Amino acid sequence: xxxxxxxxxxxxxxxxxxxxxxxxxxxxxxxxxxxxxxxxxxxxxxxxxxxxxxxxxxxxxxxxxxxxxxxxxxxxxxxxxxxxxxxxxxxxxxxxxxxxxxxxxxxxxxxxxxxxxxxxxxxxxxxxxxxxxxxxxxxxxxxxxxxxxxxxxxxxxxxxxxxxxxxxxxxxxxxxxxxxxxxxxxxxxxxxxxxxxxxxxxxxxxxxxxxxxxxxxxxxxxxxxxxxxxxxxxxxxxxxxxxxxxxxxxxxxxxxxxxxxxxxxxxxxxxxxxxxxxxxxxxxxxxxxxxxxx
Length: 294
Fold this sequence. Notes:
elongated, disordered N terminus, 2 domains, 8 helices, 69% helix, golgi apparatus, 0% strand, lipid transport
């Protein structure tokens, strides 16, 4: 009795050419601040040699073996800002959302993009480090040159130090002497000194005010009556204030009376001379009219 053989399944073969993308993808074409766009390949020997020469040049400048310091121009970052750069970025939520909404191809593209951005940012960080190092070397060289330029001035500065110290000591001694001779304003002696000074100023002012009538007589004698009136306004107000407060006694009253009498006499003289002048003018006009009639 023959048996019926069941059909065999064809053997499963693994294809030799798989289209699954590899994780070792090419480097992103994002721009770097110091490198140009290119594939992810090991740096060529020329680039390694250029980097070594840059480091050697910086060391030569630091040890004053070269005139000019190398400058590294740092352009603005060309890595675009994405959702990952947000301040409130949550990595777990972002990964879950991307896995649920993206296909495998999209995930691989995103992975490649993130890897490229990380490498570009790392290159920017290295460029900033090199630039800061270059600036540090330049600043060190500038300080060294400034110190070298200051060396010839050191002897002159050393000769000025004793003179400056002497001036400072003299100023300190003068300040201490003034503090000893002049009391503090809020002390008893200072208040007495202030009261004495106030009395002295009052005496000087009183002497000036009492001398005003004599000056008024001189101005009236010179015919400057208007100026005499102007100069008598303020002294008279001050004298009236003293009189109301009972300061000065009879001297204040006599000074007021003398000043008023001087100006009153000047007014009476001017009013008495004015009719005579008008009569003389009238006679002269009559004589001229009679001559014209002839």
